[in-house]
Amino acid sequence: MGSTSDFEIDTDVSDNDALRDKFPSQWSVLAEKGYQGIQECVRGLTPVKRPRHGHLTMEQERANAKWSSDRVIVENFFGRLKRLWGLVSDKYTWKKDECNMYFQTCVALTNVHVRFKPLRNVDGEGYTHY
Fold it and tell me: How do residues 65-83 score in pLDDT, each as one tens digit?
């Protein structure tokens, strides 16, 4: 298996949310219910709120469940990042450039860690194309 560039990997990622046409050059941002309206500024995905005295449709319930599952993965990644590298949890007292360098290094190393120890079992196959 040959080397795969980040660009090739990024173009293989499913990119079909509702805001794709409005913000074609942005990645989606998973946001919580409190960020309703974020879609006006960025490609933000939020769960659908239940209308007052109303109910969500089955499709909306499924979309919220998928969103929640994806959001858990993000939280798990940040949890692993903080558990592996204590300096990411500390209050920053360094220069901004140093802080960015250390943080980016920690994120890169955590990505490698996730490749060998996926955040959930079903994600293991997703790393075979790297």
Answer: 988 888 888 889 999 999 9
CA distance 91 to 77: 20
Token pair for 42: 């960025």
Joined together, the tokens standing for residue 6 give 């980040």
| Cα separations in angstroms, 71 against 66, 93, 97, 105 | 9, 30, 29, 23
Q: List strand residue ranges (DSSP E) for 22-121, in order.
A: 29-30, 44-45
- Triad 70, 49, 121: Cα angle to 5°: 15
Position 123 scores a pLDDT of 58
Question: Which residues of the chain fall short of a pLDDT of 50?
Answer: 1-10, 127-130
The number of C-alpha atoms within 13 Å of 43 and in the hemisphere containing its C-beta is 15
Query: In what helix (H) or strand (E) does residue 81 lie, and over which residues does it extend?
Result: helix 58-84
| Residue with tokens 């769960």, as numbered in its chain | 47
